[in-house]
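Usage

Read records sequentially. Each one opens with the input sequence:
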Amino acid sequence: MKQGVKRLLSMALALVAIVGSFVVFFNGIQPEYENLAREQGQLASLERLAQDRQTAVLKVEELIGEYSGENAEKLKASISSALPRGVDMASALVQIVGIMRLSNVTVDSISPKVETVPATNPTQIVKPVGMVTYEISAQGNYGSLKDFFSKLETNTMLFDVRSMGLRPVRTGSDVLRINLTVVSYYQSQ
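and closes with the structure output:
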């Protein structure tokens, strides 16, 4: 073979090898790079998820440790004062009347009514919350009533004011008559 033909064949063979390598790269290797990048992304997200779960487990263990032993008793007492176990009308009435007296509000009448709690399944973890409704009639000036609501709001036991009506005791007087519906809550047993 002549030298020129050999050079032409070697250049053609080199060109075929280069084109073949591009074909192999774009058809075989590049899709695998995309799969590899996708797999690495999934691995990174799973590692992040595992780390987040481990952090959550550590926080839960820390909270369990914080509320065990003596702290658990304090927590139970605190929750029981805000949300007593069973109907505790006497305590609620004492608190309402005490707040009214501290606020210089005169109590005319209080009518409690216990609302029934639906029956629960013994396997149910979260028990329903019961309510006691108090229909209250009282009187006092605006500042006293404002003080009463402020103290009722920050009281230890949970109270909600469901309805309220105000009217003056007599024309030209700064004394107001108030009719309230207040609800307290308790844990059903």
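Summary fields computed downstream for this record:
- Residues 1-66 form one domain.
- The radius of gyration is 38 Å.
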